[in-house]
Known about the structure:
The chain is 37% helix and 15% strand. By secondary structure, the chain is an alpha/beta fold. The mean pLDDT is 95.
Amino acid sequence: MENVYFFTGFPGFIASRLVECLIKQHDASHIYLLVQPSFVTKAELEVRRLVANSTTSFHQYTIIPGDITKPHLNMPHHIQQEITQQITHVFHLAAVYDLAVPENIAYEINVNGTKHVNQFVSTLPHLQRYTYFSTAYVSGTREGTILETELEMNQRFKNHYESTKFQAEKLVQSISIDSPTTIIRPGIVRGDSQTGETIKFDGIYFLLNLFDKIRSFPIIPYLGRGDAQGNFVPVDYILQATLYLSHVDSGIGKTYHLTDPNPYTMKEIYAVMMQEYLNRRPTGVLPLALAKTGLSLSTVRKWLRVEKEALDYFTCKAEYDCTQATEDLKGSHIRCPDFKETIASMLPFYEQYKHDPTKHLTIQ
Length: 364
């Protein structure tokens, strides 16, 4: 049977890049793209780009206006009937990723949205794989070694993003008995390790935003002790690993931490990024409590372009074991590059686009 794919989250950065990698590495008879109505025009432009840069043709793509927060994904009944007999692979990436997202929005998209995608998946008679994009941070405030086989461990959560992704992953795990699932838990996604390309300057880029604004300060201190590990993973590693693990039989029924197997501490990351970007070294330590107090002010957050919630990741001493991912990727030549080796590609892209408002989150 020919492979027919269904994606949510298109034309978002990761979903678009995943489709781009897919058509280069796997035979895709057809690709269905569930797109919010307001993004249809953008999706059409992205499909044109994909066709122009590959051997695929327009007839291999179908953009379906829909909404994961609605029953049946808000697809017309006749379209749902038509495609359910064809689809072999589902990739569910649609979610809200903002650390400061309000609870009601996060729940509606991340939890109810996943519930509706699960219901759709259960109607597919020829399904070979359902790949769900979770996050390593479903571990919440847990510290110590976090295993890929663990989920419900009485943890609490640092924000509504984490808690709703946890609830959504529980829903996906609940259907894994009847559906061939693969759950992907990335670390904090950063730009391409080769080109530096990224869609948003969040995550590790909050540090660059900070350094850029305070570069003229006579002293720039460390933020807290910084002894927690920073798990920032380039998007190209996540894409390659996801596609591989979503097509090999060993991936069925497994959860994978696509995290850095050799992470640096936040203190080390802070220092090396400052050195590379400003050619300076940190002096002294600013207590995190004081930094959070400053970022509690909207004017400070907006000026620095830094979310207060990002500071929580300086203190949570979690170590993400990625044994299953490492083992099942053996022989594929897919590996997570060393963080320090790829800083050189991050900085030119950031410098080129740092004044582009579409590259920054809207800080409230």
